[in-house]
Amino acid sequence: MSDHKVAVLNLEWASYPCRDRIMATLVCNYLRYQGYSVNEESIFNGYYWINRLRPRVFFITNTIGAKENFEIVKYANGKGLKVISLISEGNFKETKDFVEEFVWGWNKEKIMYEDIHLQWSERTRNLTLKYYPELNSKVRVSGGVGFDIYKILPLPERESFLKKYGKEKYQKIVGIGCYDFSSYYPHDHRFNIVKKVYSSEAEIIRFRRDRDSFREILSRIIPANPDILFLLKKHPGAPADNFAAGIEGLESLDNVLIIQSQEVIFDCLAVSDFWLVYDSTTALEAWLMDKPTGLINPSGTDFLRDNLYLGSPNYSTVEELQKAIDEYYRSGNLVGFAEKEPERRKLIKDIVQWDDGLNHVRAGNEIISLLENNLTGEYKPEPPDYLVKRLRNRLLWIFSPALKFLPKFRFYAERKKNFNRKQLRDFQEKLLKAQIQFYRSRNLSSDKLKKIKCL
User: Fold this and answer.
1) With 60 as the cut, is the pLDDT of residue 382 above it?
2) What is the pTM of this model?
3) Are 140 and 192 contained in the same domain?
4) CB atoms within 10 A of CB 379
């Protein structure tokens, strides 16, 4: 066996607490708690870290959402590493095209290079195996790891949050999780996928019209409620322009706060009184924080989507939404929300499987099983076709700050800027402290935690 300098290597895009970072660090911290050596590094310097550290297991949260992720997984597999992955967007819609996209994404070869791939629920595993039965031995169910954060982290102080943006005067906050409408327009790189999924142009045009109507509703509601702060959280993968979110022109209003990546969704949900969406998994995250939710679906809810919408009432007009806002601030109840409690209970199980805060433990125990049973393979020589790619990657990473005036180096300079070691270390320590407190509050010793398994 080759000289492994670390038990587990994790590679991700960013150090700040975005969705994938939260998932990764929850699992990595659990492994540290159990006594294993773990390194969390940037995927854009990944070839270097794989060769320098020679980990026994390579762990990543998302293998198919970007070309860089798929290529590094394939490389790790070629080096003889055991590879284990989570899934970032794990709430599949129940059609073959959607399942194909969620399972393979950038992996056009349709060869699963992971040894273990962990999904959110039995429902999605069954859907995957319905179309790809050959993956039976690789696909398991850990539950939705990222959702554990809502059981583990303490809530932020609203006053401190608002002070950062000079919005302390507001006592009422309505949160809105914005949709990314950009994929329904020809200029977007995902448009060809959208055309494949939707059978007619009329369906695509409907989303464009809904974008316009969504913006129209907000442009009338927000000025009509000057005493309420509207926190508009943009989708993390959406373009920087506000058009994609259907909120262009609203940024100039005093009672609007637009957030892209400067705050995590956890904090945005925590400071909001209730949460509105067009279509977003953040509604489920709001339920896990005991926040009421509603939909803004101007043309109705009957479009191709997963079943998450069944847990929230829909306010399709300005009048319906205003009535809901007025009733909430009068009685503390969001119109139509309480009646959907049975649907929400079922949806939580169907989507994230468990809401006990221990899905990261289930995922971590899969890695521990590989390590303890010595199922970590032999380290192999460099695949010939990757030598040039690896060296090029390293040079781009090292020299990108100095040569960022060149387009390719600029891309790497931005990625390097997004991976701040102090920021990552501070987050690791903050989260580990909360995790240990969470384990202790539930009387879960190290040995008890190890008995919590995936399906």
Assistant:
1) yes
2) 0.82
3) no
4) 17
